[in-house]
Specification:
Blueprint lengths: L1 H26 L6 H14 L2 H17 L3 H18 L2 H17 L3 H17 L3 H22 L2 H10 L7 H16 L3 H9 L1 H9 L2 H18 L2 H15 L5 H17 L3 H124 L7 E2 H11 L13 E8 L2 H8 L1 H18 L5 E4 L4 E6 L4 H17 L2 E3 L2 E3 L3 E8 L2 E2 L3 E2 L2 H18 L4 E7 L10 H10 L3 E5 L2
Parallel strand pairs: 1-3, 7-10
Antiparallel strand pairs: 2-4, 2-7, 3-4, 5-6, 8-9, 10-11
The protein binds guanosine-5'-triphosphate.
């Protein structure tokens, strides 16, 4: 809070100082004011009071301009404008434009002066508040009128200057009156000019004010007197004014006054004085020209330094922009590198994953192939083993013939579904063979000899049967022969052949020849049990067994073959064993025997 308070009080002090300086300036331009103006400028800058800073720059510019320091003045005005523009203070901006226009007029650069006045006019009409616009418009018109005067457009100058009607009397009113008088004089209207110059208010205010105005007033008055033919008054007034100009830089006024004096003296016939003032006039003109040339030079210098300053600024700006761009590029490079790095890592990860996955798949595939191979090998091996096992389980180890298991596993497939039809050829003969008194062989020659007998019988059976016949080792010394597609007579032939082969075979046991015979019973399948039902193959085997039993009981080395049943069997097949013979004899069972 205290800092804010101290700031605002400091600002107030500076504002007061500015007002004081501005007022002093209205009285007269004084070079001694410059140090104070500079202090004001520095302190405003430190305080950050930009408006005060701009105003102090304008003030200094005006003082320097008044004393012909156009170079610095130009720079100061420009600086003031640069600070004022962003502050949006149109009044201040107008004041700066008007000061700049005056400067351009002093330098006789009327086109620039006009442009600056136009800018001032635009701001006054569009942006300046109404209460302040009136006074500013008066100021503008004074300078616009003065510009017309300088350019020789006197009537236009008069119109402009007459338009500037100010409500209350101010110094500006007097300045306008003076300009108007000069315009009238320029077109020879000295009475109107004299009237304006004669106004007490104008006279007093102007004479009280600064030296330049005083000189201008007297110059105008002297001109009016000259035009009116009051040569003595003209000389008197002009001399007073000329005295005022000594030691000043008002060369224009000085030369004009000398010209008036020369003219007035000439009119009065004092040619010596006239000549003297004419010489002085010529000298003043020379000095004036020199001054103007000098001013132009200074102005060029100022413009050059301004341009250089601007160029430096633009170079700096460009440099800044370049650095900013470089920074952005650098940042972008870092970002890109970052991105590339991330991409690289991701890519690597992806490659590792893909390679890993590929390897895993390849490994799995290989493992699967190996596994499949192993499984196939094992399966094959198992199948082989199973086959061997099956073969083993189906084979009788002593004789090499198929055993009962084998028979049971194949017989159902062998029994033809349409075997019950009438064709005799389609009969399947189930035939049971048993070695006679085999126990005796064992008992007499030993078990091994018995084995040899069994093996030999198996060989005989194989030789006596067809490929399609089944030869099974049915039990200890018992064999089953199944002969498909065979008639009863063909069966008789077959069993007879077997019986005979066994009987005739020269068995040698322990180097001793022995006689071996066998008994056989057989029955056909299908076998009708009465008109309606057919016996099963199991029952047929039992009937064959009955036949074998009968052959053993009644004869041995013989066969009994059942052909058909005339009547259905009432009792069980097993019981038939006892009365098989009586059934044959009674004609219930039709059978053939070898004895
Ligand atoms: N060597 C040998 N003997 C066996 C084998 N299987 C069974 N035998 C014997 O065969 C004999 C069968 O005798 P039995 O059933 O009394 O009949 P059999 O002596 O042939 O008299 P019938 O059949 O009435 O003519 C027994 O002595 C059994 O030991 C075998 O594989 N090898």
């Amino acid at each position: 809070n205290t800092s804010i308070e101290s700031n605002s009080s400091q600002r107030e002090d500076l504002s007061k100082m500015l007002m004081h300086l501005t007022d002093s300036l209205k009285e007269d331009y004084d070079l001694n004011l410059l140090p104070q103006v500079r202090v004001l400028r520095e302190q405003s800058k430190q305080l950050g009071a930009k408006d005060l800073q701009a105003r102090s720059l304008l003030l200094e510019g005006l003082i320097r301009q008044h004393f012909g320091d156009y170079k610095h003045s130009l720079v100061l005005h420009n600086d003031a404008l640069n600070i004022a523009k962003p502050l949006n203070l149109p009044t201040l901006e107008v004041q700066i434009y008007l000061a700049m226009a005056q400067l351009e007029m002093d330098l006789e650069r009327f086109r620039y002066a006009q442009q600056l006045l136009d800018q001032a006019y635009f701001l006054i009409t569009k942006q300046v508040a109404a209460d302040k616009a009136h006074a500013l418009m008066g100021e503008y018109m004074l300078w616009q009128g003065s510009l017309y005067l300088l350019k020789g457009s006197y009537r236009q100058a008069l119109v402009t200057l007459n338009d500037a009607t100010l409500a209350e009397y101010t110094l500006l009113t007097s300045k306008l009156a003076l300009a108007r008088a000069w315009a009238h004089l320029s077109i020879g209207e000295y009475q109107k000019a004299s009237k304006l110059l004669g106004s007490d208010l104008v006279k007093q205010s102007v004479l009280k004010r600064n030296l330049h105005l005083r000189v201008r007033y007297k110059l105008t008055s002297a001109t009016a007197a000259l035009q009116a033919g009051n040569f003595a008054t003209a000389i008197d007034t002009a001399k007073q004014a000329l005295n005022d100009t000594f030691g000043t830089r008002f060369l224009t006024e000085q030369s004009l006054l000398q010209n008036i004096l020369a003219g007035a003296h000439a009119q009065l016939g004092d040619f010596e004085q006239a000549h003297l003032y004419l010489k002085r006039f010529a000298l003043s003109q020379q000095a004036l020209n020199l001054q103007k040339r000098n001013n132009k030079l200074l102005q060029l210098e100022a413009q050059y330094s301004l341009a250089a300053q601007k160029q430096q600024l633009s170079v700096l700006e460009k440099d800044n922009a370049l650095q900013a761009q470089q920074l952005i590029q650098h940042q972008q490079q870092i970002d890109n590198a970052h991105l590339a790095q991330q991409r690289g890592v991701l890519g690597l990860l992806l490659i590792v994953l893909v390679v890993g996955f590929g390897y895993w798949r390849w490994h799995n595939k290989r493992y699967l192939i190996t596994l499949k191979q192993q499984v196939a090998e094992r399966t094959e091996e198992l199948a082989e083993r199973n086959k061997r096992l099956q073969a083993l389980s189906f084979t009788d180890s002593l004789t090499g013939l198929n055993n009962r298991h084998y028979f049971f596993s194949v017989i159902d497939a062998q029994i033809k579904p349409d075997a019950s039809t009438n064709s005799e050829k389609q009969e399947m003969i189930f035939c049971l063979l048993d070695i006679d008194h085999f126990k005796k062989v064992n008992d007499t020659y030993g078990h091994a000899a018995g084995d040899i007998v069994l093996q030999t019988i198996a060989d005989i059976l194989k030789q006596c049967t067809r490929e399609s016949d089944l030869v099974i080792r049915w039990g200890g010394e018992e064999f089953l022969i199944v002969m498909p597609n065979m008639t009863h007579n063909e069966a008789i032939e077959a069993v007879e052949r077997v019986r005979r082969q066994v009987e005739c075979f020269p068995f040698v046991v322990n180097e001793q020849p022995i006689q071996v015979t066998c008994s056989i019973g057989f029955a056909p399948y299908p076998l009708m049990n009465g008109a309606k039902s057919t016996l099963s193959w199991e029952q047929v085997i039992e009937l064959a067994d009955n036949g074998l039993y009968m052959a053993k009981k009644e004869h041995r080395n013989a066969w009994v073959g059942l052909q058909s049943l005339n009547q259905p069997l009432n009792s069980s097949i097993k019981q038939l064993n006892e009365d098989y013979r009586s059934l044959i004899n009674s004609g219930q069972v039709i059978a053939s025997t070898s004895y």
